[in-house]
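Interim report, section 4.2 (structural modelling).
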Amino acid sequence: MHLKRLLIAFIALPLAYFYITKLPAGYFLFLLIAVSVAAQYEFYSMYKVKALLKYTGIVFGVFIILAFSLQPSLLSLKPFDLFAVLFIIMASIRLFLKRSPESSLLDIATTVTAVVYIPLLLGYQIYLRNQGYEWIIFLYGCVWASDSLAYYAGKGLGRKKLYEEISPNKTVAGAVGSIAGGAAGAVILKTVFIASMALPLSKGIILGIIIGAVTIIGDLVESMFKRDAGVKDSSNIFPGHGGLLDKLDGALFAGPVLYWVSIFLGLIQ
Amino acid sequence: MHLKRLLIAFIALPLAYFYITKLPAGYFLFLLIAVSVAAQYEFYSMYKVKALLKYTGIVFGVFIILAFSLQPSLLSLKPFDLFAVLFIIMASIRLFLKRSPESSLLDIATTVTAVVYIPLLLGYQIYLRNQGYEWIIFLYGCVWASDSLAYYAGKGLGRKKLYEEISPNKTVAGAVGSIAGGAAGAVILKTVFIASMALPLSKGIILGIIIGAVTIIGDLVESMFKRDAGVKDSSNIFPGHGGLLDKLDGALFAGPVLYWVSIFLGLIQ
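Predicted structure of the assembly:
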């Protein structure tokens, strides 16, 4: 399993790297839509959501991502229209799909909330990509460095559990490692891979630390959902790596936060 | 009880009418915020949502309504920011509030979805009010005429149940009555109460029919939620009338639909 795990990493990572850095922004939009569809599908399957609600949620997810790309006006919809329509349609579908009121709120709320959790949070990566591909490399590079250092720090050092009920393997040392990993990732990225990026090293380290911290929360939230749904991996599309959501969890939260903090720090507009 | 019911109607209705028609639009915003807070409170209480999640949802609801009023820019937030922040905060609160993953999605999704169901759908009444107070009178007048005719048609005529599992008292005749009531309401409103409104009678009747139809759906959806939560009335703030959500249910769905159809018909912009 460990070999398979390494093989996938050695094929998928460089492939993704070249896809993101060498191809125009439109290709990233396409990739993000594909990721959003697959991750939503995984999430709905985890929670055993009925097919009609599942596919309606996925279609709305595509519209949400397109709305990030086609700002400020998508077919002259007002900003909240997508969510108003989403709720009204989901509630109406559920009303006529099962002739029982039981757990109707859960059925509707799962799909409405999944659209926020996955495509809407992913959509911020469109804003980041619009600032240059370096921002995407920076985001995923820092998240990956956080995850990796958290894993090794958690294994090597520390016994004190971080949040045993949700993630029995995570330790406080791992959380510190995650933050340190974010900072270290930022330094390495900025000095080696994306040196041309208009980002002072000091602010890059701040961003790395924040990404490291937010990644832990994103990670724990996804673990919480998995345990709530009673599954171990979100799916098994990457043998040895678990599902797509397992890979995305940190970046889902870190993407919007990176975008907001970068605006706050005057790095982007 | 019937006397109390009538008394409340004879005091509350004219009061609301003069409040909406005689006072500037800012007062309507204030009323809508108060209604949104109270209705969300009711909804969360119905579903026994924990205090911290409940109040966070209510505060976000206020921001959502303000966002409708302060379009296009609220503190230079991007349109989706409110929902991204809402989800990240709700998920983080839930993560640390209960140390158990069980029903975490339901806890988070209930609050996120309630913000769409109540303040976001209510917010469209700000857009309507911006077109003139007549639009608000038209909306609530048609909903009220639909509800009333549905009630009497359902009682007098027809035996065939509309959706017994959710609303045992509703009949197909009642649904037809609701649509006819919307049309009749539109005619009466347009010829008596708001004759000055820039709305041709023919288009008014179309809008009335649509409001009558949508009101049924909004009504059934709220009944579904009440049965799901295991309560009879959403609360008992209006003795004999039930709760605020019981009064709002039709208008929650009819508001955005009236707004969208009126744009489609070229009546407003």
